[in-house]
Design a protein that fits this description.
By secondary structure, this protein is an alpha/beta fold. The chain folds into two domains: 25-362, pyruvate-formate lyase- activating enzyme (Alpha-Beta Horseshoe); 365-449, Arc Repressor Mutant, subunit A (Orthogonal Bundle), CATH 1.10.10.920. Helix content is 39%, strand content 20%. It has a nine-stranded mixed sheet with strand order 9-10-8-7-6-5-4-1-13, with helices on both faces. Strand 18 and strand 19 (416-419) form a beta hairpin. Helix 3 (80-99) runs parallel beside helix 4 (120-131) and helix 3 crosses helix 11 (343-351). The radius of gyration is 21 Å and the shape is globular. The mean pLDDT is 92.
């Protein structure tokens, strides 16, 4: 089957598999006492063995990027910073009461929104409240997302002094026409400036986020953007497929769908960028990352120790990821819990001295088994079944793997499945073979909430 036939068959709405079970199968309410008990138990296991991962969601942005599907709050009023920082510190305090021992922080990520919307002083206040009463793991990984337009040298120095060594800059695209369409006017000079400042400050890893599939992108424009970015020599690239979900991200309705590259054209944009990354020595990691050969992610991929969580691909694999802030998600390995997406409700719940968790999911053993298969496919491009496997694999998964093998996307037998070179473009489709929740549901149920596979 040629690539055009594969696209016609597999470019369908599928989950992005940032979790399993996927969010549509989570419960709209959660048993808070049960969540607290489970969190406490998993915290002790994780803290004593590996330390914990911490994600802090900082939702404010000064302007709306119309492509963005993240939870964000648009405002130019920086007086909102202090109230939000105080609320997150209060939330952290409630979790500290459940911990009953000093937390060991191994992984810390500031995401958004735009973390560099916040002043360096307010970021320092937040980090002081969390880190001054914690133990920093010797093998730690602290990172943050920065906007090239508003990340200052003081931001970089402040975060560096608190142990941050990795930064990810949201570049997305350098073309002026594309930038206008997505309302993100960002001169290349700003990207160059902030990259040099990060290097001079001492940051050991700089990542650029780029997106293919944005309105008005062409093969020529993506080639120019990628080439310009490679010339700045970041350590990593995240090369994401644009997810068009206007039913959940209303800003995406501000440009016309007819201006979006789709199908063959969108895939050609990916191949154009991926080809340049590989030409200049970057190694492909997982679904959407390209890194230098000396990068820790590449080393982890070679040893089979690469992991993926809500923060993305990582070399760390703690048993507990705690999410703080509006819409943040916690993952204990056997449960997910998400905070309210409403900023007003977040403040109300915090003032009532309650955890702002409003939805989630408690996994059973079957869920955990299929979750592991999905993570193995996404991270390592293969998964093993062993000598004994549940009947559900044979009934639901193996028939789909047979079909994927016939189409050249995987090699498969009763012991293992491995993604082929052609199959890398369809990793999300391959993961659906292990999405037992979806496979058991009525055909087509919930699929409209997902973006296209390509």
């Amino acid at each position: 089957m040629n690539i055009h036939e594969l696209l016609k068959k597999y470019d369908v709405p599928v989950p992005r598999y940032t979790s399993y079970p996927t969010v549509p199968f989570w419960n709209d309410s959660i048993n808070i006492p049960q969540w607290k008990r489970l969190f406490r138990n998993q915290f002790h296991l994780s803290n004593e063995k590996d330390g914990i991962s911490l994600y802090i969601h900082l939702p404010f942005c000064e302007s709306l990027c119309t492509y963005c599907g993240c939870n964000k709050k648009i405002t130019k009023n920086h007086q909102v910073e202090e109230e939000y920082i105080d609320a997150v510190i209060a939330e952290w305090g409630m979790y500290c009461e459940l911990m009953e021992q000093v937390p060991v922080i191994r992984e810390l990520h500031l995401g958004g929104g735009t973390p560099t919307f916040f002043s360096p002083d307010n970021l320092d206040k937040l980090l002081n409240a969390i880190l001054d009463n914690s133990i920093i793991h010797s093998d730690n990984n602290f990172s943050f997302e920065g906007h090239p337009n508003n990340t200052t040298e003081i931001h970089l120095k402040t975060l560096y002094e608190r142990g941050f060594r990795r930064v990810s800059f949201g570049v997305q695209d350098n073309n002026a026409v594309v930038q206008k369409a997505i309302n993100r006017i960002q001169p290349l000079e700003n990207v160059k400036r902030v990259t040099e400042q990060a290097r001079n400050t001492g940051f050991q890893s700089v990542n650029f986020d780029l997106i293919y599939g944005l309105p008005f992108q062409t093969r020529e424009s993506i080639r120019e953007t990628v080439s310009e970015c490679i010339s700045l020599q970041p350590d990593r690239f995240a090369f994401y497929s644009y997810a068009h979900v206007p039913w959940t991200s209303r800003g995406q309705r501000l440009f016309s769908e007819t201006d979006l590259p789709v199908g063959d054209l969108k895939l050609s944009l990916y191949h154009e960028g991926a080809g340049l990354f590989k030409k200049y020595g970057y190694k492909q990691i997982g679904m959407d990352h390209f890194v230098k050969a000396e990068d820790d992610l590449y080393k982890a991929s070679r040893t089979g120790s690469l992991h993926r969580n809500f923060m993305g691909y990582t070399t760390q694999h703690t048993r507990l990821q705690l999410g703080l802030g509006v819409s943040a998600i916690s993952d204990t390995g056997n449960a997910f819990a998400q905070n309210t997406k409403s900023l007003h409700e977040f403040y109300q719940i915090i003032k009532a001295k309650e955890l702002p968790v409003i939805k989630g999911y408690f996994l059973n053993q079957e869920d955990e088994n299929f979750k592991k298969h999905i993570l193995d496919v996404i991270c390592n491009g293969r998964t093993y079944f062993g000598n004994q496997y549940p009947e559900e694999l044979k009934k639901f998964t193996f028939p789909i793997l047979d079909q994927l093998q016939n189409d050249g996307l995987v090699t498969f037998n009763s012991r293992f499945v491995e993604v082929t070179e052609s199959g890398k473009n369809f990793t999300r489709n391959i993961c659906t073979a292990f999405d037992l929740k979806q496979l058991r549901s009525v055909a087509g149920q919930n699929r409209s909430v997902y973006s296209q596979a390509i």
